[in-house]
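Look at a sample.

——
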Amino acid sequence: MAHFVIMGCGRVGVSLAHTLDESGHSVAIIDQDDRAFRRLRGSFGGRKVTGVGFDRDTLKNADIENAYAFAAVSSGDNSNILATRVAREIFHVPHVVARIYDPGRAEIYQRLGIPTVAAVRWSADQVLRRILPEQSINGDFRESSGRLILGELALHDGWLGRSVRDIEAAAGVRVAYLTRFGEGMLPAAGTSYQEGDVVHAMMETVATDEVARVLSKPPREEQE
């Protein structure tokens, strides 16, 4: 189980908080208006922190220093980006994502290596796919027979610098393309997995859980 910090107690923030809390994770949710916490269920067992989400003391009160992931899902683009940068650059949170209403601005920040989702494409499920990599793979495309699925992979940091071919061999998948700095690219023979890359691969539908299990751990030689 891991600790998650969410900034913004609106519809998406509440959905994330409930999902993570019900899954047994530790959750802290931040909002400037303590009345926003009324949206949370009475059974919510996480921490409610009143304050500005990019303020260091507020983040510390939310136990950001032990956070596995941080999601900024307030209604303000600038606040979300600033909070995400503080979480990543000051507190070194390994998984961050920011909600952005302006698609053009989202693309700019994506190119700078800040994971974003434009509001027009927004859903709580998309956030979970970025901050909860160990969950089962969700497919972006399924071929007509249902046997094959194109899905977004989540890889352990131990795979950084390893070639796409190593990933394919270990997980039994075929990498279709990478998203790097917000742009799609077809991997060449010598392409390696870099920090910030999103890997999209074809795999057998029945093998998605096993693929997720293999890639959630470092390459085998690093485990020995």
In short: The helical segments are 11-22, 56-61, 77-90, 103-111, 124-131, 164-171, 208-215, 220-223. The radius of gyration is 18 Å. The first strand starts at residue 3 and ends at 7. The chain has eight helices and eleven strands.
